[in-house]
User: What shape does this take?
Amino acid sequence: MKELAIILMSMVLVNNYVLVQFLGICPFLGVSKKLNSAVGMSIAVIFVMVLATAVTYPIQMLLDMWGIGYLQTVIFILVIAALVQLVEVAMKKMLPALHRSLGVYLPLITTNCAVLGVCIQVIDNGYNYLESIVCAAGAGLGFMLAMVLFSGVRQRIEDNDFPEAFKGIPITLVAASIVSMAFMGFSGVVDGIFGL
Assistant: This one.
């Protein structure tokens, strides 16, 4: 149980995919303007990350058993694309307003390298199935934390007056780098909490 808590906390704070490993930057910058869009995208990413990891983990075992583990990336991308299509269809039926607000960014979950990254990382780290699911959930929660925090930062910086050269994407990137540096402070938190 302690190992699962360490994996979860590590993925949310210390090894945050967006702010530490710089994976999933496209939706981070594209959808974080409004809080409700950021939360909606984050929930979809969490769902896809956990589901993709749950599906790709046994597929990797089959690939290894058949001696075709080198097809891992291609197979994983196909599985993720199929899962994203399922999520998009379900969201269009159940949450049409959120589906419209996410627009093109929802299908872009397919190319979100954070989703593929977590599927490959759990294999590379040698996690068992339960640890893999916890890792994926932690990565998704970390993605959500980054999106929600940065959404708040972006709403605050829009109300300020900046020199013309900083307006738009430049100030967004500066703010993202500052938020990212703030996460460096979490580097010893998991060790301190769990006495490692």
About this structure: The chain has a mean pLDDT of 87.
